[in-house]
């Protein structure tokens, strides 16, 4: 069901005439699925439009607001955010240690420096909202509620991992917490996220259930040159799906600078081209991210459709633990290290008397213990046995077919041992 | 009930299958994509005829060879209704959509247009634009969207307007559809059905004449089935929708207008089983989809020459039904595979390997496989005819194997 696109949110500029708005509004009961845009009557001068674009960077908006409460968060919220970011940072640091000790293998991509984006968005979501990520997914899983134990065990390849050891670092899934992965190829998860948002709309409109679940899709700057990204922006805007596309623009796709690979590096601009708001936000500041996220999530829950949020962020480590990280300029790294999101939040909490050093130290200690315990748990867990090899290939194992003896292969006793011929 | 080919009396006059004679004006209105379809006109005695023109229909009962083709006991002679294959697919789909509100359809032109082969005709009017979703042209994204929807509780039927277009969705089909149940440790199921027409049509050109079963067969975690008659089309469609596994249902462009009488009651066809088309003693012929009809055409000639071929429509392309196939091999000791897939790495190649591996002791002759030529399907009619296996070649192959 499409409603006319209306840009009345504070995310957009106050200028009336440059809004991408539709002249008419369809009645709410219309089942028309599709764009009702018509081209604006006045021809916009391109340069004019660029200067007075309806979409502005959020920093300006936050400054313009004159809230009654000058603080953006309460004490409780502040501590939750702090704990989540500390958890992300400590966990990833522990991963690096464990990798170099030979406890985990393969490709491991760490999230250090980007915690503000994960925490800023995911801490606003409910359990039934969905999150879709990429291979840099440990912290998204943790923020969503997957236990540190389960993630660490998965990284160690143990049976107690969230995916029974079958997925690994790049495939963190949790049905309970609606963490829909974890994808190894970039861009692969975006259509899946679009599908999850489609289900939400379907439940509401076809099954007549009370459903306002939203989906948040996280991906990087490199993905924004991939076709799947654009195809999904189109469909999400077309069907007004409750999805938020979050670009974690850390400026580097392994060794490829964003500026060297993208004709127009301002990714947020690509939203309005498809009929959705595009917002740029400082991704090293969890409070700013949170403010933008609130708007975007509320918009999606109200059925107004998708939002594209570009978070300017930075990864303090290399692309993965196998990356020597030689290409990036030391000055650039230093510049962003000075904007460490955890340090920034700590400063905010203390300066605004929301918390004191002691409380924050307690949280840090608590997280340290949690991560240590997760490692111990993962170490002590068993590795998968042979019997697990053939399970989970099919939801219905009859899919392995009928053997020469007339029995389904999954009925062969050797099947559960993992040694059957399939 | 299997679709049978009558006109056996005309077999003596029709030793070579001249498909050009069977062309008739297309029943479905496909504007820009004008294709010549095989129109099957049902004759009064409710028998099934394939590509009948008045020249070929049976009028000489004294030459009719009753056991040329298999006839299962006609239990639904009095009940049942006659329809075309695309209508059978539609019926199966509609029944499943009625039965479970989570079943939905997505694809290009499936809604308002009714489907480019009319399989989804009328469904958008009945179920609405969201349940029968007209997608933009973005196979990779909408296949992925279907997979994401399946992970979160829906049961999408994803249509590729032509199976060849699903090459664009290979990333999603291979990496997500096939793998996510496993990499998520069994947490998420992906009960999608991916379906569409494929195969060599009537001078559709190379890109619209592809057989994707050979590319998809290696993907772990998916099942593949191919329908060939209205009966098994409806049955397989329903079974695929009800299955918790992702299933790829291959239809054939030239078979949509086959007519058959199917039962009125609710039935499904087992996804993993093969179909016995004609029991026999001398040789096992394994085939699927459109080649079934070339085989049956050749069977008429072979019977007249004194051979007794056993014809099995394997239906399940992945996994193979090694029980039905094995029993047949053990009986006849000779195997001929007839397929439309390419020679290299096709379904026939896998099947040959599977038979050799499992039933080597029972074979009196090497397994022979007739496949399409490893060429991009040419546009010219003559060339196109030579890329695909014709009944005459099948007859020759059987004679060769049975020496």
Give structural notes.
The complex is a heterodimer of chains A (422) and B (403). By secondary structure, chain A is of the alpha/beta class. Chain A folds into two domains: 72-254 and 264-380, Rossmann fold, CATH 3.40.50; 386-422, no CATH class. In chain A, 39% of the residues lie in helices and 8% in strands. Chain A is built from 15 helices and nine strands. Chain A has helices at 46-51, 58-64, 75-100, 115-122, 138-144, 148-156, 189-205, 227-238, 258-261, 270-274, 286-301, 330-337, 341-351, 357-380, 413-417, and strands at 130-132, 173-174, 179-180, 215-220, 243-249, 252-253, 256-257, 278-282, 307-312. A five-stranded parallel β-sheet of chain A has the order 1-4-5-9-8, with helices on both faces. A two-stranded antiparallel sheet of chain A has the order 2-3. In chain A, helix 3 (75-100) crosses helix 14 (357-380), helix 4 packs parallel to helix 11 and helix 6 (148-156) packs across helix 14. Chain A is globular, with a radius of gyration of 23 Å. The model of chain A is unreliable at 1-30 and 39-66 (pLDDT under 50). Chain B has 403 residues and is α/β, with parallel strands linked by helices. Chain B contains twelve helices and 16 strands. Chain B has helices spanning 85-99, 123-127, 139-151, 170-177, 180-183, 213-216, 230-242, 291-304, 322-332, 347-359, 381-387, 391-401; strands spanning 23-24, 37-38, 81-84, 103-107, 132-134, 155-159, 193-198, 223-226, 247-252, 259-262, 275-278, 283-287, 309-313, 316-318, 335-342, 368-372. In chain B, helix 3 (139-151) runs parallel beside helix 4 (170-177). Chain B is globular and about 60 Å long. The interface between A and B is large, with 66 and 63 residues.
